[in-house]
Predict the structure of GTP cyclohydrolase 1.
Amino acid sequence: MINNEEFQDEIGNNHISTNAENPVRKDAFDITDEIKIDKIKKDVENILITLGMDLTDDSLKGTPNRVAKMFVKEIFGGLNPAKKPKASTFDNNYKYGEMLVEKNIIVYSTCEHHLLPIIGRAHVAYISNGRVIGLSKMNRIVEYYSKRPQVQERLTMQIVQELQIALGTEDVACVIDAKHLCVNSRGIGDIESSTVTSEFGGKFKDAQTKREFLDYIKLETKF
């Protein structure tokens, strides 16, 4: 009979999510970033010391502080709702009614199972329902939801849902093609494989519209 630790390893090693939203505690932002950095710094110091590293070495002295700042300010900064980009939209005064596709948006995220990088590209599209959004805002939405411990399926869905809310339309799609270093650099150690996820809303569920979008992006992603 499988025990709880083995079950948790099965979930993590097979990259299975048990929550459609990022599992963040309600008190996650009751303390400041500075306090978080100080607490994480001490934890990183303990990890390195436990591994046998000499933290008096000039190369390692600043590592715990650098890692702590990176966690809070950079790679997990998207956990903080205060950093959510304002998705400004505008009237579609020029009456553009065709598909708009933003290709090859760089994705830097972190696998929540092993805390190793996810690196790839997102392709996002929408069909205006009277509102349009600035192109850079699409990139910023991808970045915001990427900067947190993630699973790729959830990230793909979050991008679509955020744009649907901002644009007031279901007609949004996203495809992400990414490498997971927890697959590429450990475990099976397959350096060539990548993972493709997709989420199609509204008109993009129609086979012809979906095919048009996929033809635009062609999934010939290079890393």
User: Anything to note?
Assistant: The longest helix spans residues 33-50. The chain is about 40% helix and 20% strand.
